[in-house]
Amino acid sequence: MVASKLFVQCSRQKGLLKIYRHLLNSRKNVFNIFSIPEVGGMKFKDVRRKVQDAVVCGIFRSGGIHFHPGDDEVLKETDKLLLISPVCGKRKSQYSVLNISERTDNSVNYSEPKEGQRSSSVVTELKETRLKNIVERPSKSLSKSSECTLGPRECILIVGWRPKITDMIREYDNYLGPGSVLEILSETPITERTSVVNPLMQSQLKNIKVTHKVGCPMNYDTLKEAIINIRKSAKCDKNVPLSVVVISDRDWLIGDTVQADKQLAYTLLLAENICQKNDIKVQHLVSEIVDTGLGKQITRIRPSLSFIGAEEVMSLVTAQVAECSELNEVWKDILD
Asked: Start and end of every CASTOR/POLLUX/SYM8 ion channel conserved domain (predicted)?
């Protein structure tokens, strides 16, 4: 389920995957959680200004993470700081002996180091990306006149099928607005698909309607028909953004990953060719991939395409959480 969240997020915002990789690269600055009792009684804004060679981006309190609390939030001695800094080790002691005992609201001549500025911009961009794409939900049932801002109305063509596609569908439902259409193209029989994406699940979706089309995704005419039909559908006029998303089809997963990656890449390139020849404007052309190196090679030639190695990123998240279990709350919050 987390991999589906990650894939949908990255498929909707180009560059987000690069930010995640930066925060998971042990050779760069990453998330670290430090216990520094000296900050007890200080305001968050003062702590943020006084910690050097790191970016303070939140506090860990009572088992939960709080990103960027209010400037006047007073920290407790039991609070831990969430920093973006070098990997724990040589630098860890530096943060525990910082000169942060002066409890004053005044701070002068403070400037972050260049690497800290880069890390700060990474966090800022990450938060802006999440806010830009997320659909705000009311905490309880409200009248239409007082509802929160809804997401955009879009059309999504998912090329490929596997039973766990339901996680991806639910995630798209969280991001898209009412009237959105999601069509699935695959050779898998519709009877098998509707046993998974059943009427009960469809009734639980608030913003998207799921439709199905049977056919070989790697067949030019079949894929062309699917793209043109969803573009011409009554509920998907030319002003509604269209995205083509290629995922590993169940049958493709039977073979080796190298062959599956080739099929994924071929299908996405085919979709791009169809859209260009038929003058179809497409917002996102994105595909899953295992070999991220292959994906990078293709995007150098075809920059309009995006390849997402969600499983690779999830393995990096798992490795980071294995070293520090408290970081699990950090990534849960980011991917929620």
From this structure: 1-99
Beta bridge partners of 285: 244, 305
Could you report the per-residue pLDDT of 122-149, keeping only the tens digit for each? 555 555 554 454 444 444 333 232 345 7
Give helix then strand counts, H and E, for the chain: 13, 10
| Strand ranges, E, within the chain | 30-35, 55-61, 64-67, 80-85, 155-159, 180-186, 208-214, 242-246, 284-288, 305-308
Nearest CA to 307 out of 17, 98, 73, 20 is that of 17
Contacts with 217 (C-beta within 8 Å, 6 or more apart), sequence order = 159, 160, 185, 186, 187, 223, 246, 249, 267
Q: Is 244 helix (H, G, I), strand (E, B) or coil?
A: strand
Question: For 212-241, how does the pLDDT look when each residue is reduced to its tens digit (9 = 90+)?
Answer: 999 999 999 999 999 999 988 755 567 889
- Per residue, the 3-state secondary structure of 8-60, as one string, reads HHHHHCCCHHHHHHHHHCCCCCEEEEEECHHHCCCEHHHHHHHCCCCEEEEEE
Task: Give the domains, in start order, of the chain with CATH numbers.
Answer: 2-17+151-331 (3.40.50), 29-125 (3.30.70.1450)
Per the DSSP assignment, residues forming a β-bridge with 154 are none
